[in-house]
Design goal:
Length: 245
């Protein structure tokens, strides 16, 4: 059984894979991983991989040290099944790379754009030869709502859920429509721009945020909430099969 630990800006995800099959996903606190010992007690874990976009606390380090199996910490020195062309690999958030690997595993030999809508929205491109060219980072939904409130004198903090109109009729609906439509149009713009150069481009959408994506491009989009976890599992297996762990 493979243990996958993805520590994000907001939450940590702990997953178990049997081969390529996702068995269970558990959400945990990214500052404690307090559920990790209980999860490990229920499965015979043989190997593990961890990626984090935050600094690990002493408590998290203690729990990782107590794992009953070898742990691969994904980073700039980890061998990958794709070629990394990012110019500053040590500044790269490797959850982004895991998403790319997950998409390439499903559709090898294709040009792919991976859009991850989490705390931030990231856009990653990998070509048909398996070369990761890099990507862009944009504010996520909650970040946009909070920024409008925090950096203005009178705009309220609006929730994502609520009355949604094409054109706002009051301040709340104006902010909600502006943020949601802005994200939608931003994503559509990236897809359109990339497809002019790569007509057979496949598009993956993943991440924790759910938002309206009502577009005529929907037919070419593959939605997969667990793309990062699947990519981490692929990287773990790749290193294990090549005797690197």
């Amino acid at each position: 059984m493979n243990l996958i630990i993805d520590i994000g800006n907001t939450v940590a995800k702990i997953a178990l894979f049997e081969g390529d099959t996702l068995v269970e996903v558990v959400h945990d606190f990214n500052q404690t991983l307090e559920r990790l010992p209980e999860v490990c007690s229920r499965y015979e874990v043989e190997r593990a991989i961890m990626v984090s976009v935050v600094d690990l606390t002493d408590e998290v380090e203690t729990r990782l040290a107590g794992l009953p199996c070898p742990l691969l910490r994904l980073g700039a020195d980890t061998p990958l099944p794709v070629e990394n062309l990012y110019e500053t690999p040590r500044t790269l958030g490797y959850d982004r790379m895991a998403a790319v690997v997950g998409a390439c595993t499903r559709f090898p030999g294709r040009d792919i754009l991976v859009i991850d809508a989490g705390t931030c929205i990231t856009f990653e491109f990998v070509d048909a030869c398996g070369r990761y060219h890099g990507g862009n980072i944009s504010p996520g939904l909650q970040m946009r709502f909070k920024a409008l409130h925090q950096f203005t004198g009178h705009l309220p903090l609006v929730e994502c859920e609520g009355r949604s109109l094409p054109i706002g009729k009051d301040t709340d609906t104006a902010i909600r429509a502006g943020v949601l439509r802005g994200v939608e149009y931003e994503i559509e713009g990236y897809i359109h721009s990339m497809r002019t150069k790569y007509p057979e481009l496949l598009v993956f959408l993943t991440g924790g945020n759910e938002f309206s994506f009502d577009t005529n491009l929907k037919s070419i989009i593959f939605a997969d909430r667990f793309l990062v976890l699947k990519g981490l599992n692929r990287i773990l297996v790749y290193n294990y099969n090549n005797d690197r762990i």
